[in-house]
Amino acid sequence: MKPTSLFATLILLFTLATGTVYAGEPTPVNINTADIATLAQLDGIGESKAQAIIEYRESNGPFKSAEQLSDVKGIGARTLEKNAERITVK
Q: Mind listing the domains of the chain with CATH numbers?
């Protein structure tokens, strides 16, 4: 095996190994500023519920807590529970 091929293989293996570590870390989502695509990344939130979240915050102002998200039609306690570690309002 050529040294270049060995080096490229090692880089690929390192990239795959470190990518797996980072894949498990949830990315916080600020429900007061997130767009539809970002909100739809939350568990149990699709595009239609993401749109409902945006419409709710435009009509009622920013969310004061993550729990207030349950005021949006179609979002219940289970959805909040599944996303508790990811939802922020700051």
A: 29-88 (1.10.150.280)
Question: What's the pLDDT band for 23 if we cut at 50, 70, 90?
Answer: low
pTM: 0.72
pLDDT in tens, 27-62: 899 999 999 999 999 999 999 999 999 999 999 999
52 contacts 74 by C-beta, under 8 angstroms: yes
**66: CB partners within 8 A, 6+ apart:** 31, 80, 84, 87, 88, 89
Nearest to 70 by CA among 88, 56, 90: 56
Q: Compute the C-alpha angle 75/90/87, nearest 5°.
A: 35
* Under 8 Å between Cβ of 56 and 71: yes
Bridge partner list, 88: 30
Give yes or no for a contact between 53 and 63, defined as CB atoms under 8 angstroms apart. no
